[in-house]
Specification:
mainly alpha; Arp2/3 complex 21 kDa subunit ARPC3; ABC transporter permease; ABC_thiamin-permease_prd; transmembrane helix
C-alpha cells in the first residue's frame, strides 16, 4: 500500500521547483505586461499623487502597490524560486524601453528588492502554500521594504517619526496588502479561470477548487 502521507523527496522537490521553458516564456510575457502597466501608471500617478498629498502628506504612498504587485502575482502563477525577481526585472526593462523619468539604477535595484521581499513568505514554506493570506503577507513584506527604501533613497528630508513619515509607511503597508496582496490574488484567480494556466500547477489548483465546489451537496 502506498503511503500518501510521506513528504516529498528532495528529488521531487527539486523537480517541482525547476524552471521549464514554459515558465520562462510566461514569466517574460507577464513581465512585459507589467512593464506596460508600470509605464502607464507613471502618468496617472503624477496627476493623482499631488491631490492625495494635498489631502494628507504621505498618503499618496497607498498607490505604490501598483508598481510592485507583479512580484506577488508572479509567485502565485509560476510558483518557482526567483519568479518575482525575474518578472520585476523584465517589467522594469520594458518600462525603461517605453520611457521612464527615474534613473536606471534606482529602478532595477528597487525591482530586485521588491521581488526578493515578495518571495520571502513563499520561500519560508518552500513554495508549497499559495492562498490569499500568503498573498497579503507577500504584499505586506514588499510594502514595508519599499517604504523603507523610499525613506532612505528618495525621501531623505522626511523624518522617520514625523507625521508625513508615519503616514507614508502606514499607507505603503496598506497599499501593499490591498494592491500587491489582495488584488494580485484575485487577478491570479481570474487569469486561471480563463484556462490559460491549465498547464501549470497554479491553474490546475484553481480548476480543482472549482470542481470541488461544484460537487459539494447543497444544505
Amino acid at each position: 500500500m502506498v503511503d500518501h502521507t510521506q513528504q516529498p523527496t528532495p528529488i521531487r522537490s527539486r523537480v517541482r521547483l525547476r524552471w521549464t521553458p514554459a515558465d520562462i516564456a510566461v514569466a517574460a510575457a507577464l513581465g512585459v505586461a507589467a512593464g506596460i502597466i508600470f509605464w502607464g501608471f507613471n502618468f496617472a500617478y503624477s496627476s493623482i499623487s499631488p491631490v492625495l498629498g494635498g489631502l494628507l502628506p504621505g498618503f499618496a504612498s497607498i498607490l505604490h502597490g501598483v508598481w510592485y504587485f507583479s512580484g506577488t502575482l508572479a509567485v502565485l502563477i509560476l510558483r518557482k524560486p526567483g519568479s518575482a525577481i525575474f518578472v520585476n526585472l523584465v517589467g522594469c526593462a520594458a518600462e525603461m524601453v517605453l520611457g521612464n523619468s527615474f534613473s536606471f539604477g534606482f529602478i532595477f535595484l528597487s525591482a530586485a528588492l521588491q521581488g526578493l521581499f515578495a518571495e520571502l513568505p513563499f520561500a519560508v514554506t518552500r513554495y508549497r502554500v499559495f492562498n490569499l493570506p500568503m498573498a497579503m503577507l507577500s504584499g505586506l513584506c514588499t510594502g514595508i521594504e519599499y517604504g523603507v527604501y523610499l525613506m532612505l533613497f528618495r525621501y531623505q528630508g522626511v523624518a522617520w517619526f514625523s507625521p508625513r513619515g508615519i503616514i507614508h509607511m502606514i499607507s505603503e503597508v496598506v497599499g501593499g496588502v490591498l494592491i500587491a496582496g489582495v488584488f494580485s490574488w484575485f487577478l491570479y484567480i481570474a487569469i486561471a479561470k480563463t484556462g490559460v494556466l491549465d498547464r501549470f500547477a497554479s491553474g490546475r489548483a484553481v480548476r480543482f477548487a472549482d470542481r470541488q465546489k461544484a460537487v459539494q451537496p447543497l444544505d
